[in-house]
What we know:
Radius of gyration: 22 Å
Largest sheet: 3 strands, antiparallel
Number of strands: 19
Order of helices and strands: HEEEEHHEEEEHHEEEHEHEEEHEEEHHE
Strand content: 15-25%
Shape: globular
Helix content: 25-40%
Structural class: alpha+beta
Amino acid sequence: xxxxxxxxxxxxxxxxxxxxxxxxxxxxxxxxxxxxxxxxxxxxxxxxxxxxxxxxxxxxxxxxxxxxxxxxxxxxxxxxxxxxxxxxxxxxxxxxxxxxxxxxxxxxxxxxxxxxxxxxxxxxxxxxxxxxxxxxxxxxxxxxxxxxxxxxxxxxxxxxxxxxxxxxxxxxxxxxxxxxxxxxxxxxxxxxxxxxxxxxxxxxxxxxxxxxxxxxxxxxxxxxxxxxxxxxxxxxxxxxxxxxxxxxxxxxxxxxxxxxxxxxxxxxxxxxxxxxxxxxxxxxxxxxxxxxxxxxxxxxxxxxxxxxxxxxxxxxxxxxxxxxxxxxxxxxxxxxxxxxxxxxxx
Length: 346
């Protein structure tokens, strides 16, 4: 009944929305550098910048030899700003915040921090590393799969709207506090992306039964997006040369490529004779916005047309925003993409 209601809302006309070129994915992350710092005072032990939240939950980030400890809220605000347009509807931002928090929990990056006196304490400007007991969370580094923008980067990105958009992200994180996505009793790192090719991809189809919680759903409004269709062309000789460099041998006289697709229309692999290349690798090789692409040779050039932006698995941010505009709550949005997974911690 929930999905029927959501799809009925989606059938209403939704205007075009400007798409911005920053998105993150869980399974195929585009990592942003982390800006971290540590403080060393003359004659004192080394400390790390931190604010201990009332809940006691912290995240530690590393860049080189520097480690920065911050509150759950502070980290999620920066992570949220890095992966979704802050101009999106509040309920869409809240849904994304839940996904990011779940990924922190699933990766062991978000833990209770207990001070020496046994309390979680109120906010402090900085504490010594030696004053923290209990099990420390795993440090988020360049291999952890998280994108993050610090406050200075957010101000540069947002310009005159920085204060307003900062507050929107903060409110989304606070309003979704305590909510995570769980499958079989454990938090999951749920994938997300910018814009589908008309339908999200099936987790079961791609990764097996263990990813059954990642459903394939129709996203009928996505075709209205400004960047839904994109086109790229290059000389045919260069195109086949790039494929051959990847080990895909193509017959010179009668080149023929066979594209295998999943049920959502995304290319799983491109085959030429006995050699092939995976759809996602093809996308990376030719710098395409998605792996839902179509090939056509025209007058000595290969024209590549793509649909959507991103890998197509999990939460479709554009569709989530469209649903939020129609009055859907963050809970309803997450229930549509990840049915039965939303949980509130005690």
